[in-house]
Design a protein that fits this description.
single chain; alpha+beta; 5 helices
């Protein structure tokens, strides 16, 4: 459940996160946006970690050419932060990247990222 979606960018990013990560079960992590909007862990689950996006362009910058370097740079340049167990974040990320995406999924993903604030 999301709390406090106040601005357009926050709504857009939250919708994208729910589209791409909403099918993860159990989703035992949360995401907090720069405006305080929070996408809580799945009902009945405690969040093992919280990913904090510090500005509207953070998600696009981090995921456009996503690899270990861009994700690390997003953390080092203070675009994102992690509260809680960072080892669990890495394990969850590894679980998400299980194989190559099909062309249709890559196009959908790219369109969604391009629609985000830069």
């Amino acid at each position: 459940m999301a709390r406090s979606v106040n601005d357009r960018s926050a709504r857009q990013i939250l919708a994208l996160l729910q589209q791409f990560l909403g099918g993860i079960h159990p989703r035992d992590f949360s995401v907090r946006l720069w405006d305080g909007t929070t996408w809580e862990a799945e009902a009945g689950r405690d969040a093992r970690f919280t990913v904090v996006l510090k500005h509207p362009g953070a998600l696009r910058r981090m995921l456009w050419a996503a690899d270990e370097l861009t994700v690390s740079e997003a953390y080092l340049y203070d675009d994102v932060d992690v509260e809680g167990n960072i080892v669990e974040l890495i394990a969850t990320a590894d679980r998400l990247v299980v194989g190559p995406m099909g062309l249709t999924d890559r196009i959908r993903y790219a369109r969604a990222l391009l629609s985000l604030p830069a």
